[in-house]
């Protein structure tokens, strides 16, 4: 393991996440850095701009034997960057294995079967230690450290041992499951104790916070009360606060980008390219089995077959960013989705005019925003999702308050975005009806809904999320 980047320890806030905001990309002739995938980075990075902060994480680089690693930038728009290198074995066991083969499915209602392997947990423990050591070396005396997400749940306790002077916050970006599911985990006690090393543990939803508190009662015998739980500490006790902090987006930034003439022109061009101004349905996701991409493709194709929607009136674009391609379940879902797209287009498409346009690639921000501007209906149908930022990004881009969002009730976002068309993604008929109802709603009804949705997204934006979390951590909120 090597650590690269600034070590002056002057930043006030140290943020630690498995991913850095930039990842190494070797898919072009010229090696380069690009924005890391996923909601954690896209929310947090803009919110930290302009703050004195250092971000510690993995760069996604995996140099072959004898190959040099590419030097990370020391800073990104004023944000200090410190890289933690992982070995190929650690990536396989800690990242692909325990994090994404055990924790990710378990925390998402076990929608795929989690696999528990002792060697992988050992690697998870080892890599969490690497991150904790890197933070301990970096954080200023008495400083504040903010640990992020399921890959690093042991870090808070490791850090508290090494640096009792620090104020430690933890935020879980994904759901925390009910104790009946969490209890499957052979290392459930270690993870709970790891998290309780923090002063504040944050979740996306009230349910997540309650599930965690319930687990400390059932599995550790603690006695949580309200939003606090006392944990043994030396000869006394320490109080850990546990609360929900639903994450937001940089709504102003998306809104401003959506209004630019370039994006508006590109959106028009896209509509022209995709079926000449028919109603455009859009899906945008990391290619992940939790996202219910297959659900919406099925509902869309059945709605066409049954005449609920007319192929001469509607078309669909599904964008899937490649994700965790070495993990078996991700290979399987990619095959399933691509088979489905092929079938639907074979049955329902026409020459030069597919029913579903499908892209499996990362999309630059401006292009993505043009898609949001172009689309009449956004389909967000996860089987379980911590929040879902795509829904919020789409809403922020609907500058003239038109458009509709079909939103799974099993996303954190559904708790806030009540004016969306809320659906149960396990009920394909209900999803079909929601498609038809969004397509058939009057412009006045859609605007009424969209104005409410925009108010939610602009009020609870990512700046507010950062300020509320840090203020609570710093004890300034009673
Ligand atoms: P998750 O964090 O599980 O990936 P979210 O919906 O919360 O899900 O966040 C996904 C983030 O990834 C959003 O910020 C979205 O804009 C971005 N994103 C999704 N698909 C793509 C894509 N094909 N290209 C670029 N960014 C994408
Ligand atoms: C979700 C997780 C993040 C993760 C991201 C991308 O947003 O909550 O922790 O970084 O997906 O996944 P990856 O495995 O590529 O880091």
List the helices and strands and how they pair.
Blueprint: E1 3-4, E2 13-19, E3 22-25, E4 32-35, H1 39-48, E5 53-58, E6 75-76, E7 79-84, H2 88-107, H3 118-138, E8 144-148, H4 155-162, E9 167-171, H5 179-182, H6 188-195, E10 200-203, H7 206-220, E11 228-233, E12 236-244, H8 251-259, H9 261-273, E13 279-286, H10 293-305, E14 314-321, H11 328-348, E15 356-360, H12 365-374, E16 377-380, H13 389-397, E17 404-408, E18 421-423, H14 428-440, H15 443-459, H16 462-473
Parallel strand pairs: 2-5, 2-8, 5-7, 8-9, 9-10, 10-12, 13-14, 13-16, 14-15, 16-17, 17-18
Antiparallel strand pairs: 1-7, 3-4, 6-7, 11-12
Bound molecules: adenosine-5'-diphosphate (ADP) and 6-O-phosphono-alpha-D-glucopyranose.
6-O-phosphono-alpha-D-glucopyranose (G6P) is lined by residues 19, 37-40, 149, 173-174, 323-324.
Brief sketch in words of this structure:
This protein has 478 residues and is α/β, with parallel strands linked by helices.
Note down, in words, how this protein is organized.
With 478 residues, the protein is α/β, with parallel strands linked by helices. The chain has 2 domains: 246 residues, Glycogen Phosphorylase B (Rossmann fold, 3-Layer(aba) Sandwich); 209 residues, Glycogen Phosphorylase B (Rossmann fold, 3-Layer(aba) Sandwich). The chain is built from 16 helices and 18 strands. Strands 1, 2, 5, 6, 7, 8, 9, 10, 11 and 12 form a 10-stranded mixed β-sheet that branches. It has a 6-stranded parallel β-sheet with strand order 15-14-13-16-17-18, sandwiched between helices. A two-stranded antiparallel sheet has the order 3-4. Helix 3 packs across helix 4, helix 8 crosses helix 13 and helix 10 packs parallel to helix 11. The structure holds adenosine-5'-diphosphate and 6-O-phosphono-alpha-D-glucopyranose. The site of 6-O-phosphono-alpha-D-glucopyranose (G6P) has 10 residues, from helix 1.
